[in-house]
Amino acid sequence: MDMLPPVTPTVVGLRPSATLAINETCRQLIADGHTVYKLGLGQSPFPVPDHVVKALQDNAHQKAYLSARGLPELCDAVAAHLGRTEGVSRRGEMVLIGPGTKELLFLLQFVYQAELLLPSPGWVSYEPQAAVVGRSYSWLNSDREDWGLCPQALDAHCRSQGARARLLILNYPNNPSGHCYSADELQALAEVCRRHQIVVLSDEIYSGVHFRGEHVSMARYYPEGTIVSNGLSKWAGAGGWRLGWFSFPDELAALHRAMETLITETFTSVNSPVQYAAISALDNHADMAVYLRDSRRVLRALAGHCAEQLRHAGAELADAEGGFYLFPRFHGLKEIEDSAQLCRRLLNEAGVAILPGTDFGRPGGEFSARVAFVDFDGAQALKAAAAVADIDAAFLKQYCEPTVTAMGRLADWLHQTS
Ligand code: PMP
């Protein structure tokens, strides 16, 4: 029998991530009978709201392929939602629905030949996607305590490199730091983007879990150059439903068209029952307002508690203003060389899994790491939160386990190791 010749994948730029290595160690520890606290994974702890689940059940019979850009009623609902929540005017025809925003981000990088600008620290997948499609990328460092991108740093980068096509990915509430931009900061960034004609992908997937419900979209200040990215994964608890969207200004119709064409040649359309159901997450239902209010109250109180614990144990960090994460820097740890080793030892010695800053574009010697504080039963926590006026330490101890215990173990380990 003839043998197959050696098969060589042609994808370049892929490397195994430290996330996988940590997951493997977790699996091994659990198999050996150890308890592991998973503060590595950034999944919503909250259930999908009941009325959205009901809408999915009611639409299980939907079986037709839908148009590549998405179900027109859903595209209109996305545009209306942006108008209502952000004061941003967009047309339903300029929306694209994807199987999660991650795929849409990949397609955008594929169709737009531009240098990718990434504020550091930033989410794990932007850079590998750029590498896979052969785009150049630059991490933009911030010297601010809260990690926010400085307009001056963006301007200096663009001036030093001369004119070229550029794509800036802004992400806030930020994964991994929890940082959010104020209206003034967005305005200042918008001026620089306009000056250098930068296309902005504003990754606002955590907008609904801004702790004070005060998210402001970049598209408010730079409407002509901003593609807004959002979806059901984080603030509607439906990561596994795989539904996200981009909304484009008319000025970027060429990018919209190119991506729509690519969709026809790749995933065709997102599954129809979920597209019909998603309308109910966007249509200003009274239950959604209560769900978001209580999700934010729980996350805000827990983020505050975790930040306090970390500071008490000697870590340096900014307060999170939204999302699921904190991004502390550790100092003076004995016999630890970099952030990857720090995370390995923390897992082996205290059973707490967090991700090293190197996964988010930071140097290993900085000893930074991302703590995801969402390992708890969100259904119970939401129900209990609706019944109390204040979310205090006793509430967190009762309803936000195992996160609260994990933070205690992390703090104890830090004390012992420094
Ligand atoms: N952007 C950020 C910042 C994220 O944290 C995630 C999910 N972890 C995504 C995009 C992708 O989300 P999805 O594909 O589920 O829409």
Give an overview in words.
The structure is a single chain. Strand 3 (115-119), helix 5 and strand 4 form a beta-alpha-beta unit. The longest helix has 27 residues, at 286-312. The protein has 14 helices and twelve strands. The strands form three sheets. It has a seven-stranded mixed β-sheet with strand order 2-8-7-6-5-3-4, with helices on both faces. Helix 6 (151-161) packs parallel to helix 7. The radius of gyration is 22 Å and the shape is globular. With 418 residues, the protein is an alpha/beta fold. The structure holds 4'-deoxy-4'-aminopyridoxal-5'-phosphate. 4'-deoxy-4'-aminopyridoxal-5'-phosphate binds next to helix 4.
Largest sheet: spatial strand order? 2-8-7-6-5-3-4
Distance separating the two termini? 62 Å
- Give the H and E element order: HEHHEHEHEHEHEEEHHHEHEEEHHH
The largest sheet, given as strand count, sense and whether it forms a barrel, is:
7 strands, mixed
**Global Rg:** 22 Å
The count of strands amounts to 12
Q: pLDDT average, as an integer?
A: 95
Anisotropy-based shape: globular
What does the secondary structure layout of this molecule look like, with pairings?
Blueprint: H1 18-31, E1 37-38, H2 50-58, H3 72-86, E2 95-98, H4 101-111, E3 115-119, H5 126-132, E4 137-140, H6 151-161, E5 166-171, H7 183-196, E6 199-203, E7 226-231, E8 244-247, H8 253-265, H9 272-282, H10 286-312, E9 325-326, H11 339-350, E10 352-353, E11 355-356, E12 369-372, H12 378-386, H13 393-399, H14 403-417
Parallel strand pairs: 1-10, 3-4, 3-5, 5-6, 6-7
Antiparallel strand pairs: 2-8, 7-8, 9-12, 11-12
Bound molecules: 4'-deoxy-4'-aminopyridoxal-5'-phosphate.
